[in-house]
Design brief:
Blueprint lengths: L2 H12 L7 E6 L5 E7 L2 E7 L8 H12 L7 E5 L4 E4 L7 H7 L4 H16 L3 H4 L9 H8 L1 H11 L5 H18 L5 E3 L8 E3 L9 E3 L6 E3 L2 H8 L8 H13 L6 H30 L8 H11 L6 H10 L9 H4 L3
Antiparallel strand pairs: 1-2, 2-3, 3-5, 4-5, 6-9, 7-8
Helix pairs in contact: 4-10, 6-8, 6-11, 7-11, 8-11, 8-13, 9-11, 11-12
Length: 339
Protein backbone atom coordinates (compact mmCIF):
# COMPACT_ATOMS: atom_id res chain seq x y z
CA UNK A 1 0.00 0.00 0.00
CA UNK A 2 1.41 3.43 -0.96
CA UNK A 3 2.08 6.23 1.50
CA UNK A 4 -0.59 8.28 -0.29
CA UNK A 5 -3.14 5.54 0.16
CA UNK A 6 -2.28 5.35 3.86
CA UNK A 7 -2.88 9.10 4.16
CA UNK A 8 -6.26 8.84 2.46
CA UNK A 9 -7.42 5.91 4.58
CA UNK A 10 -6.37 7.67 7.80
CA UNK A 11 -8.13 10.87 6.72
CA UNK A 12 -11.37 9.07 5.88
CA UNK A 13 -11.41 7.07 9.10
CA UNK A 14 -10.71 10.19 11.17
CA UNK A 15 -13.75 11.85 9.58
CA UNK A 16 -16.23 8.99 9.95
CA UNK A 17 -15.98 7.37 6.52
CA UNK A 18 -15.31 3.75 5.71
CA UNK A 19 -12.38 3.72 3.22
CA UNK A 20 -14.11 0.93 1.31
CA UNK A 21 -16.95 3.36 0.47
CA UNK A 22 -14.82 5.00 -2.24
CA UNK A 23 -15.61 4.89 -5.96
CA UNK A 24 -13.71 6.69 -8.74
CA UNK A 25 -15.49 9.85 -9.83
CA UNK A 26 -13.26 11.97 -12.05
CA UNK A 27 -9.70 12.85 -12.88
CA UNK A 28 -8.64 16.38 -13.69
CA UNK A 29 -6.32 18.14 -16.11
CA UNK A 30 -4.28 18.98 -13.00
CA UNK A 31 -2.91 16.49 -10.46
CA UNK A 32 -6.23 16.45 -8.59
CA UNK A 33 -8.36 13.31 -8.42
CA UNK A 34 -11.90 12.83 -7.13
CA UNK A 35 -13.76 9.88 -5.59
CA UNK A 36 -17.35 9.56 -4.43
CA UNK A 37 -17.95 8.33 -0.90
CA UNK A 38 -21.20 6.48 -0.31
CA UNK A 39 -22.55 4.82 2.84
CA UNK A 40 -26.25 4.08 2.65
CA UNK A 41 -28.01 7.35 1.76
CA UNK A 42 -25.01 9.44 2.77
CA UNK A 43 -22.65 10.66 0.03
CA UNK A 44 -19.72 13.05 -0.27
CA UNK A 45 -16.74 13.67 -2.56
CA UNK A 46 -13.10 13.11 -1.70
CA UNK A 47 -10.69 15.57 -3.33
CA UNK A 48 -7.19 14.12 -3.55
CA UNK A 49 -4.87 17.07 -4.33
CA UNK A 50 -1.34 15.86 -3.56
CA UNK A 51 1.27 18.39 -2.44
CA UNK A 52 3.54 19.88 -3.62
CA UNK A 53 1.84 19.86 -7.03
CA UNK A 54 -1.48 21.07 -5.57
CA UNK A 55 -2.50 23.45 -2.78
CA UNK A 56 -6.06 23.10 -1.46
CA UNK A 57 -6.09 26.45 0.36
CA UNK A 58 -7.27 28.54 -2.64
CA UNK A 59 -10.10 26.07 -3.23
CA UNK A 60 -11.19 26.24 0.41
CA UNK A 61 -11.11 30.04 0.48
CA UNK A 62 -13.02 30.46 -2.78
CA UNK A 63 -15.59 27.78 -1.92
CA UNK A 64 -16.43 29.55 1.31
CA UNK A 65 -16.55 32.92 -0.45
CA UNK A 66 -18.92 31.69 -3.14
CA UNK A 67 -21.20 29.99 -0.62
CA UNK A 68 -21.29 33.23 1.40
CA UNK A 69 -22.39 35.06 -1.77
CA UNK A 70 -25.28 32.60 -2.09
CA UNK A 71 -23.96 30.40 -4.90
CA UNK A 72 -23.82 26.60 -5.06
CA UNK A 73 -20.17 25.77 -4.56
CA UNK A 74 -19.58 22.50 -2.70
CA UNK A 75 -19.35 23.00 1.05
CA UNK A 76 -16.26 21.55 2.72
CA UNK A 77 -16.95 19.15 5.58
CA UNK A 78 -13.40 18.03 6.39
CA UNK A 79 -9.90 19.15 5.43
CA UNK A 80 -6.27 18.17 5.81
CA UNK A 81 -4.14 20.98 4.41
CA UNK A 82 -0.81 19.24 4.93
CA UNK A 83 -1.81 16.15 2.92
CA UNK A 84 -4.02 17.95 0.38
CA UNK A 85 -7.22 16.09 1.20
CA UNK A 86 -10.76 17.46 1.40
CA UNK A 87 -14.24 15.98 1.85
CA UNK A 88 -16.76 17.98 -0.14
CA UNK A 89 -20.51 18.22 -0.45
CA UNK A 90 -21.68 15.93 -3.27
CA UNK A 91 -23.48 18.03 -5.89
CA UNK A 92 -24.50 14.93 -7.85
CA UNK A 93 -23.90 13.70 -11.38
CA UNK A 94 -25.78 16.24 -13.48
CA UNK A 95 -22.90 18.18 -14.96
CA UNK A 96 -23.87 20.56 -17.73
CA UNK A 97 -21.84 18.36 -20.08
CA UNK A 98 -23.87 15.26 -19.21
CA UNK A 99 -27.24 17.02 -19.31
CA UNK A 100 -26.45 18.62 -22.67
CA UNK A 101 -25.47 15.22 -24.05
CA UNK A 102 -28.59 13.44 -22.76
CA UNK A 103 -31.14 16.23 -23.27
CA UNK A 104 -29.80 18.71 -25.84
CA UNK A 105 -33.17 20.47 -25.88
CA UNK A 106 -32.22 21.93 -22.46
CA UNK A 107 -29.33 23.88 -23.98
CA UNK A 108 -30.93 27.33 -23.87
CA UNK A 109 -32.16 26.75 -20.30
CA UNK A 110 -28.75 25.70 -19.05
CA UNK A 111 -26.79 28.44 -20.74
CA UNK A 112 -29.33 31.04 -19.63
CA UNK A 113 -28.95 29.95 -16.03
CA UNK A 114 -25.15 30.18 -16.28
CA UNK A 115 -25.33 33.66 -17.85
CA UNK A 116 -27.78 34.79 -15.18
CA UNK A 117 -25.33 33.73 -12.48
CA UNK A 118 -22.63 35.88 -14.13
CA UNK A 119 -25.05 38.80 -14.37
CA UNK A 120 -25.74 38.50 -10.65
CA UNK A 121 -22.04 38.20 -9.79
CA UNK A 122 -20.96 41.09 -12.01
CA UNK A 123 -23.76 43.30 -10.73
CA UNK A 124 -22.30 43.23 -7.22
CA UNK A 125 -19.84 45.87 -5.96
CA UNK A 126 -16.23 44.76 -6.36
CA UNK A 127 -15.71 45.02 -2.60
CA UNK A 128 -18.39 42.35 -2.18
CA UNK A 129 -17.54 40.03 -5.06
CA UNK A 130 -13.73 40.06 -4.83
CA UNK A 131 -12.21 38.65 -1.63
CA UNK A 132 -9.25 40.58 -0.15
CA UNK A 133 -5.82 39.73 -1.51
CA UNK A 134 -7.02 37.94 -4.65
CA UNK A 135 -4.54 37.83 -7.53
CA UNK A 136 -5.20 40.40 -10.26
CA UNK A 137 -5.62 39.15 -13.82
CA UNK A 138 -3.43 41.88 -15.27
CA UNK A 139 -1.50 42.22 -18.52
CA UNK A 140 1.58 40.48 -17.11
CA UNK A 141 -0.32 37.39 -15.94
CA UNK A 142 -2.36 37.17 -19.15
CA UNK A 143 0.82 37.48 -21.20
CA UNK A 144 2.58 34.80 -19.17
CA UNK A 145 -0.34 32.46 -19.85
CA UNK A 146 -0.28 33.24 -23.56
CA UNK A 147 3.38 32.18 -23.62
CA UNK A 148 2.25 28.57 -23.27
CA UNK A 149 1.74 28.53 -27.04
CA UNK A 150 5.32 29.46 -28.10
CA UNK A 151 6.78 27.54 -25.16
CA UNK A 152 4.93 24.24 -25.75
CA UNK A 153 2.93 24.13 -28.98
CA UNK A 154 5.43 25.79 -31.30
CA UNK A 155 8.36 23.53 -30.30
CA UNK A 156 6.09 20.50 -30.74
CA UNK A 157 5.41 21.67 -34.31
CA UNK A 158 8.93 22.81 -35.28
CA UNK A 159 11.00 20.34 -33.27
CA UNK A 160 13.09 23.09 -31.63
CA UNK A 161 12.70 25.66 -28.82
CA UNK A 162 11.20 28.98 -29.80
CA UNK A 163 14.05 31.51 -30.26
CA UNK A 164 14.14 34.28 -27.66
CA UNK A 165 13.56 37.14 -30.18
CA UNK A 166 10.42 35.44 -31.54
CA UNK A 167 9.19 34.83 -28.02
CA UNK A 168 9.80 38.48 -27.14
CA UNK A 169 8.00 39.71 -30.25
CA UNK A 170 5.03 37.53 -29.28
CA UNK A 171 4.76 39.22 -25.89
CA UNK A 172 5.08 42.65 -27.50
CA UNK A 173 2.31 41.85 -29.99
CA UNK A 174 -0.13 41.04 -27.19
CA UNK A 175 0.57 43.98 -24.88
CA UNK A 176 -1.63 46.72 -26.37
CA UNK A 177 -4.57 44.37 -26.89
CA UNK A 178 -4.42 43.00 -23.35
CA UNK A 179 -4.07 46.50 -21.93
CA UNK A 180 -7.31 47.40 -23.73
CA UNK A 181 -9.08 44.27 -22.46
CA UNK A 182 -8.14 44.92 -18.81
CA UNK A 183 -8.88 48.65 -18.73
CA UNK A 184 -12.23 48.42 -16.91
CA UNK A 185 -12.59 47.94 -13.12
CA UNK A 186 -12.24 44.26 -12.19
CA UNK A 187 -14.78 41.75 -10.95
CA UNK A 188 -14.44 38.19 -9.66
CA UNK A 189 -13.31 35.92 -12.50
CA UNK A 190 -13.81 32.19 -11.82
CA UNK A 191 -11.52 31.50 -14.80
CA UNK A 192 -12.74 28.03 -15.83
CA UNK A 193 -16.43 28.81 -16.22
CA UNK A 194 -17.57 26.28 -18.82
CA UNK A 195 -19.91 23.30 -19.10
CA UNK A 196 -17.48 20.75 -17.66
CA UNK A 197 -17.38 22.75 -14.41
CA UNK A 198 -21.07 23.61 -14.04
CA UNK A 199 -23.75 21.47 -12.39
CA UNK A 200 -27.50 21.43 -13.05
CA UNK A 201 -29.05 21.26 -9.57
CA UNK A 202 -32.72 20.58 -10.24
CA UNK A 203 -33.75 20.83 -6.59
CA UNK A 204 -32.39 24.35 -6.15
CA UNK A 205 -33.84 27.63 -7.32
CA UNK A 206 -32.54 30.76 -8.99
CA UNK A 207 -28.79 31.13 -9.30
CA UNK A 208 -28.30 28.21 -6.92
CA UNK A 209 -29.54 25.86 -9.65
CA UNK A 210 -26.18 26.36 -11.39
CA UNK A 211 -23.55 24.56 -9.32
CA UNK A 212 -19.91 25.65 -9.50
CA UNK A 213 -16.78 23.49 -9.64
CA UNK A 214 -13.07 24.12 -10.30
CA UNK A 215 -12.81 27.71 -9.13
CA UNK A 216 -9.58 27.54 -7.14
CA UNK A 217 -7.75 29.65 -9.75
CA UNK A 218 -10.18 32.58 -9.45
CA UNK A 219 -8.75 36.06 -9.94
CA UNK A 220 -9.83 39.70 -10.02
CA UNK A 221 -10.14 40.62 -13.67
CA UNK A 222 -12.23 41.57 -16.70
CA UNK A 223 -15.98 40.86 -16.57
CA UNK A 224 -15.89 39.57 -20.16
CA UNK A 225 -13.62 36.65 -19.26
CA UNK A 226 -16.05 34.15 -17.73
CA UNK A 227 -18.76 34.85 -20.32
CA UNK A 228 -16.16 34.25 -23.00
CA UNK A 229 -15.02 31.04 -21.32
CA UNK A 230 -18.62 29.80 -21.36
CA UNK A 231 -19.41 30.77 -24.96
CA UNK A 232 -16.02 30.05 -26.62
CA UNK A 233 -15.71 26.57 -25.18
CA UNK A 234 -12.51 24.71 -26.06
CA UNK A 235 -14.24 21.32 -25.75
CA UNK A 236 -17.71 21.90 -27.21
CA UNK A 237 -19.07 23.36 -30.44
CA UNK A 238 -21.64 26.08 -29.73
CA UNK A 239 -23.96 27.41 -32.43
CA UNK A 240 -23.45 31.06 -33.35
CA UNK A 241 -27.11 31.90 -32.73
CA UNK A 242 -26.88 30.58 -29.15
CA UNK A 243 -23.72 32.64 -28.60
CA UNK A 244 -25.51 35.75 -29.92
CA UNK A 245 -28.56 35.11 -27.75
CA UNK A 246 -26.51 34.65 -24.59
CA UNK A 247 -24.35 37.68 -25.36
CA UNK A 248 -27.48 39.81 -25.77
CA UNK A 249 -28.94 38.38 -22.55
CA UNK A 250 -25.83 39.49 -20.67
CA UNK A 251 -25.55 42.92 -22.30
CA UNK A 252 -29.24 43.68 -21.76
CA UNK A 253 -28.68 43.36 -18.01
CA UNK A 254 -26.11 46.19 -18.10
CA UNK A 255 -27.62 48.95 -20.25
CA UNK A 256 -24.88 51.45 -19.32
CA UNK A 257 -22.13 49.13 -20.55
CA UNK A 258 -20.11 50.20 -23.61
CA UNK A 259 -21.06 47.31 -25.87
CA UNK A 260 -18.29 47.80 -28.40
CA UNK A 261 -15.63 47.92 -25.70
CA UNK A 262 -17.08 44.84 -24.00
CA UNK A 263 -17.18 42.87 -27.26
CA UNK A 264 -13.60 43.90 -28.05
CA UNK A 265 -12.45 42.76 -24.59
CA UNK A 266 -14.40 39.50 -25.04
CA UNK A 267 -12.62 38.81 -28.35
CA UNK A 268 -9.15 39.75 -27.10
CA UNK A 269 -9.55 37.55 -24.03
CA UNK A 270 -10.90 34.74 -26.22
CA UNK A 271 -7.78 34.87 -28.38
CA UNK A 272 -5.56 34.88 -25.30
CA UNK A 273 -7.39 31.92 -23.76
CA UNK A 274 -7.33 29.93 -26.99
CA UNK A 275 -3.58 30.49 -27.35
CA UNK A 276 -3.07 29.47 -23.73
CA UNK A 277 -5.23 26.35 -24.01
CA UNK A 278 -3.49 25.17 -27.19
CA UNK A 279 -0.27 25.35 -25.19
CA UNK A 280 -1.81 23.65 -22.15
CA UNK A 281 -3.26 20.76 -24.15
CA UNK A 282 0.11 20.26 -25.85
CA UNK A 283 1.85 20.29 -22.47
CA UNK A 284 -0.62 17.78 -21.04
CA UNK A 285 0.36 15.36 -23.77
CA UNK A 286 4.12 15.92 -23.59
CA UNK A 287 4.62 16.35 -19.85
CA UNK A 288 1.74 14.41 -18.32
CA UNK A 289 1.02 11.74 -20.97
CA UNK A 290 -2.60 12.96 -21.26
CA UNK A 291 -3.11 12.86 -25.01
CA UNK A 292 -6.94 12.92 -25.04
CA UNK A 293 -6.93 16.72 -24.99
CA UNK A 294 -5.20 16.89 -28.38
CA UNK A 295 -8.46 16.16 -30.24
CA UNK A 296 -9.75 19.61 -29.21
CA UNK A 297 -6.86 21.52 -30.79
CA UNK A 298 -8.45 21.89 -34.26
CA UNK A 299 -11.58 23.44 -32.71
CA UNK A 300 -9.48 25.83 -30.64
CA UNK A 301 -7.52 26.91 -33.70
CA UNK A 302 -10.80 27.66 -35.49
CA UNK A 303 -11.90 29.80 -32.56
CA UNK A 304 -8.52 31.54 -32.39
CA UNK A 305 -8.50 32.20 -36.14
CA UNK A 306 -11.93 33.82 -35.87
CA UNK A 307 -10.81 36.01 -32.95
CA UNK A 308 -7.70 37.19 -34.78
CA UNK A 309 -9.87 38.90 -37.41
CA UNK A 310 -10.82 41.62 -34.90
CA UNK A 311 -8.89 44.86 -35.55
CA UNK A 312 -7.93 45.07 -31.88
CA UNK A 313 -5.75 42.00 -32.48
CA UNK A 314 -3.98 43.16 -35.66
CA UNK A 315 -0.50 42.95 -34.12
CA UNK A 316 -1.18 39.46 -32.75
CA UNK A 317 -2.61 38.30 -36.07
CA UNK A 318 0.53 39.57 -37.84
CA UNK A 319 2.74 37.61 -35.45
CA UNK A 320 0.76 34.42 -36.05
CA UNK A 321 0.81 34.91 -39.83
CA UNK A 322 4.61 35.12 -39.71
CA UNK A 323 5.44 32.47 -37.13
CA UNK A 324 2.50 30.05 -37.10
CA UNK A 325 1.03 30.14 -40.62
CA UNK A 326 -2.22 28.27 -41.33
CA UNK A 327 -0.48 25.04 -42.36
CA UNK A 328 1.01 24.76 -38.84
CA UNK A 329 -2.27 25.35 -36.98
CA UNK A 330 -2.84 21.65 -36.43
CA UNK A 331 -2.31 18.91 -33.91
CA UNK A 332 1.48 18.48 -33.78
CA UNK A 333 2.06 15.35 -35.90
CA UNK A 334 4.95 14.16 -33.73
CA UNK A 335 2.55 13.85 -30.78
CA UNK A 336 0.19 11.51 -32.63
CA UNK A 337 2.80 9.13 -34.01
CA UNK A 338 2.94 5.67 -32.52
CA UNK A 339 6.25 4.90 -30.74
Amino acid sequence: MSDREDQIISFLKANGWDPSARRPLADDASFRRYERLREGMRTAVLMDAPPPQEDVRPFIAMSRHLVALGYSAPCITAENLKDGLLILEDLGDHTYTRVLSETPEREVDLYSKAVDLLIDLHGRPAAESIPPGLTTYDVELLNQEALLLPDWFLPAITGRPTPAPIRASYLAAWRDSLTQATSRPPTLVLRDFHVDNLMWLVNRNGNQACGLLDFQDAVAGPAAYDLMSLLEDARRDIASDLVATMMERYLAAFPALDRDAFRAAFTILAAQRHAKVIGIFTRLCIRDAKSAYLLHIPRIWRLLDASLKHPALDAVATWFAEHVPPNLRIIPPRLTRQP
